[in-house]
């Protein structure tokens, strides 16, 4: 039996579809937007153009497939039932409207595209048929592309990049920038502004608390039977906080649409409330009633079309408490316009973070629609997290902080403004149930047997105390039933912040439980708190330091096994009921004391160690580092802390070049392998790093470089001001670290700002023991490459360098690397770039 959902039952397409189903043996039935639940369960398939009908959630729970009309036609063409997944109207299967054919593309790319399309609801056709919507090709010269152009088929010829970007984002984006024969992604340069379109899908869904509602007089045909409110009972929750005049207006609109307004949640079909809390909200949610907020109700009034509150993040009530991990976050927006910007601003507030109009260094995140704005450049320069809006939407839908390291949140397709696809994320009913109306906390905790009435009112506001049950409590459990599980707390409705009564302390005798603590004990508590704060001050300082690392504390923090981690305070908290340690705990402590680690004899920086390189070797790397630490070797990542450097050969990695400036003992990675193999600390001098081929290639001696580094004392480039183009190969951060490791200054140059005129060497000229290169005091250097996009910045650099009376020198990065590796200054003449080289490079 196939059920056909339609907003208007008198449209001919629905009747035609029903006739086709009946002709081929099906039992069709046409329904309005709100069919009866019994009919939904009896149906084997539901045909609908969207998931916006009242019984969609019931159908998914009953495992009844919801398909688009194309499923019927495709089944008839195949003469068998087609896969319902490929014809689902669920927007999460964002490629369900795509039927793809492949042209002359590599076989590996072809398999990847087909697999991705099928996984996201699309179909694949090996031939060009009338069902094909997209042809994937690299040029319009292939046979299939020529066939499309010759016969003028309604097929879009797109580059494979479009599918790649869609699958990376998990969203369908506009294919126009990828459409052949003249794709914008290959034609437009980075300086061409990216256009932004008005996101019409966010109309009426950009704020959880709208301030304007259509008046009842503006609703056309209020008694029309097709009204979305017909026959519904609606409850308006008191927490909406709306005035009596507006409340009367809303009720009048609902009554004209055929709905009734009730004050009892049991009688209501729909509940309109503001917050995800309170008895009414939890009851309606547990009874599977439709729960939405005022913005959702206004949307129904305005468009007279049913939409599920879960389809839009801000059509569902918000929470008073922030998402765990969002407290204290300061987030700014860039490149979002119109409704998309308003929507994200309100979503940031609903998540519990602060949305700032301007970007400052105190911000923690920047959410941007593409990565080419000045805000993005400044955020990366300041070390802020730069993500797209999918990070915010996914965190809100999952109600937990999503890691910014997910590649999906750092992907910005070229020539696409992601504001066009904002607002497509849906809420998950299971997540809401788990966090806000879980059936586990329905029963309130049982009161003590001899509790007074006054204490009962107080205890209902507080969570159960986390302590072992007394004998009297055990007797009470038998009398009153099973108590609430430990750790579960019931949420209480409140229009203000919750005021919890403190749990009775174990230090207060039972007969003194109602007495107010004296001022002396209060002062002792304050002194104890101050002392505790002083004890954990090192932990707080370390936490603030780690927060500046990429990924934050969670994804860039230290392990408990790290030696330089601030140790925990060994003192235990006082307890009125101390418990004796078990024999197993004492045995464990004895083992730990017995197996103490030796003192650190070297801080080793390792680079290019092949046994740790590659995906899947993380566990081996961690195990080897722990093993090395047991031998007295601390593996470090910061070149400033290393005393020894291990590498398989002379490398131009950031670690290797930076470490040379600190004159460590340099050895081969064979030292690491042999220490691990023999389980003992060997002599580093037995494993010298010898690489004559690299020394000849880079024109330096490793031994002499180490001697010069000891003499230079990280001041080789003191007085040098070196600028770098933004998108240079290797990355600005790598070259900045090399310059700063050798005492110089390195800054980004984007062609907009002037150059600073202060110098570190000018501030201190007492380095007589240093080798001096006078050009460093009178020249400004720009690290660039022989690419035309970089050459466009050269005239501007020469101009601003002249403004501060410095000679501009535009050089290849080899100039910096050769100096850092040889630890001696070199003239920039042989590394300098000019316009003639640019022409040669382009040819």
UniProtKB/TrEMBL annotation:
UniProt cross-references to Gene3D superfamilies, sorted A to Z: BRCT domain
InterPro entries, alphabetized: BRCT_dom, BRCT_dom_sf, CellCycle_DNARepair_Reg
GO biological process assignments: DNA double-strand break attachment to nuclear envelope; double-strand break repair
Compositional bias segments (type: Basic and acidic residues): 467-477, 559-570
Domain of life: Eukaryota
One annotated Gene Ontology cellular component of this protein: Cul8-RING ubiquitin ligase complex
SMART domains reported in the protein's UniProt record: BRCT
Entry-linked CDD domains: BRCT_BRC1_like_rpt2 (cd18436), BRCT_BRC1_like_rpt3 (cd18437), BRCT_BRC1_like_rpt5 (cd17743)
Protein's name in the database: BRCT domain-containing protein
Species for this entry: Penicillium canariense
Classification lineage: Eukaryota, Fungi, Dikarya, Ascomycota, Pezizomycotina
């Amino acid at each position: 039996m196939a059920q056909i959902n339609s907003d208007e039952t008198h449209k001919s397409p629905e009747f035609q579809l029903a006739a086709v189903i009946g002709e081929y043996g099906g039992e069709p039935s046409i329904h309005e937007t709100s069919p009866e639940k019994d009919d939904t369960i009896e149906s084997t398939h539901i045909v609908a153009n969207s998931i916006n009908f009242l019984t969609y959630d019931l159908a998914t729970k009953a495992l009844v497939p919801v398909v688009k009309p194309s499923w019927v036609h495709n089944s008839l063409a195949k003469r068998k039932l087609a896969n319902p997944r490929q014809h689902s109207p669920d927007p999460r299967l964002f490629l369900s409207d795509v039927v793809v054919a492949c042209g002359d593309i590599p076989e590996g790319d072809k398999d990847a595209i087909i697999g991705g399309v099928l996984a996201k609801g699309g179909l694949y056709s090996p031939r060009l048929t009338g069902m094909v919507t997209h042809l994937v090709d690299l040029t319009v010269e292939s046979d299939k592309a020529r066939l499309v152009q010759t016969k003028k088929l309604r097929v879009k010829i797109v580059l494979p990049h479009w599918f790649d970007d869609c699958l990376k984002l998990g969203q369908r984006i506009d294919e126009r920038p990828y459409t052949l024969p003249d794709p914008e992604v290959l034609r437009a340069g980075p300086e061409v502004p990216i256009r932004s379109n008005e996101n019409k899908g966010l109309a009426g869904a950009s704020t959880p608390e709208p301030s304007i509602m259509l008046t009842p007089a503006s609703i056309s045909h209020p008694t029309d039977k097709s009204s979305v409110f017909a026959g519904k009972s609606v409850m308006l929750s008191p927490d909406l906080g709306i005035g009596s005049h507006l409340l009367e207006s809303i009720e009048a609109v609902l009554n004209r649409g055929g709905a009734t307004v009730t004050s009892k949640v049991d009688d209501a079909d729909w509940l309109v409330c503001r917050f995800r809390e309170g008895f009414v909200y939890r009851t309606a949610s547990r009874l599977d009633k439709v729960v939405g907020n005022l913005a959702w109700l206004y949307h129904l009034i305005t468009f007279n079309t049913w939409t599920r509150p879960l389809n839009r993040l801000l059509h569902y009530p918000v929470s008073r408490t922030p998402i765990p991990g969002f407290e204290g976050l300061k987030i700014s927006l860039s490149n979002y316009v119109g409704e998309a910007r308003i929507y994200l601003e309100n979503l940031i507030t609903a998540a519990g973070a602060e949305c700032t109009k301007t970007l400052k260094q105190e911000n923690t995140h920047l959410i941007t629609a593409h990565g080419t704005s000045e805000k993005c450049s400044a955020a990366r320069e300041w070390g802020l997290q730069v993500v797209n809006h999918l990070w915010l939407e996914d965190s809100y839908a999952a109600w937990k902080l999503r890691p910014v390291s997910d590649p999906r949140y750092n992907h910005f397709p070229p020539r696409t403004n992601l504001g066009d696809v904002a607002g497509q994320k849906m809420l998950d009913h299971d997540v809401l149930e788990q966090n806000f109306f879980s059936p586990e906390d329905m029963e309130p905790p049982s009161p003590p047997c001899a509790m007074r009435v006054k204490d009962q009112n107080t205890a209902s506001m507080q969570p159960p105390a986390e302590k072992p049950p007394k004998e009297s409590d055990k007797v009470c459990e038998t009398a009153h039933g099973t108590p609430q599980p430990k750790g579960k707390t019931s949420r209480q409705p409140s229009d203000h912040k919750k005021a919890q009564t403190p749990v009775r302390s174990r230090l207060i005798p039972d007969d003194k439980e109602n007495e107010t603590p004296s001022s002396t004990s209060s002062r002792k508590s304050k002194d104890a708190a101050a002392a505790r704060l002083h004890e954990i001050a090192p932990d707080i300082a370390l936490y603030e330091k780690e927060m500046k690392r990429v990924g934050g504390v969670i994804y860039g923090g230290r392990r408990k096994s790290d030696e330089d981690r601030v140790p925990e305070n060994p003192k235990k908290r006082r307890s009125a009921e101390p418990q004796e340690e078990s024999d197993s705990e004492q045995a464990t402590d004895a083992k730990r004391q017995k197996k103490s680690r030796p003192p650190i004899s070297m801080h080793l920086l390792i680079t290019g160690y092949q046994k740790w390189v590659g995906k899947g070797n993380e566990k081996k790397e961690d195990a080897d580092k722990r093993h090395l630490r047991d031998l007295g070797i601390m593996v470090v990542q910061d070149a400033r802390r290393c005393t020894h450097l291990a590498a398989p050969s002379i490398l131009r990695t950031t670690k290797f070049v930076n470490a040379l400036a600190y004159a460590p003992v340099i050895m081969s990675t064979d030292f690491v392998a042999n220490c691990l193999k023999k389980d003992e600390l060997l002599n580093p001098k037995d494993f010298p790093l010898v690489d004559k081929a690299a020394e000849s290639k880079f024109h330096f001696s490793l031994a002499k470089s180490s001697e010069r580094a000891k003499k230079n004392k990280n001041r080789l480039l003191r007085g040098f001001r070196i600028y770098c183009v933004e998108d240079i190969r290797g990355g600005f951060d790598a070259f900045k670290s090399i310059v700063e490791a050798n005492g110089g200054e390195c800054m980004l140059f984007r062609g907009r700002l002037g150059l600073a005129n202060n110098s570190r060497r000018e501030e201190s000229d007492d380095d007589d023991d240093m080798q001096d290169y006078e050009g460093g005091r009178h020249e400004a250097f720009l690290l660039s490459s022989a690419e035309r996009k970089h050459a466009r910045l050269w005239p501007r650099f020469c101009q601003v360098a002249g403004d501060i009376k410095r000679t501009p020198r535009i050089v290849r990065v080899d100039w910096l690397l050769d100096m850092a590796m040889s630890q001696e200054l070199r003239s920039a003449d042989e590394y300098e770039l000019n316009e003639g080289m640019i022409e040669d490079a382009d040819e």
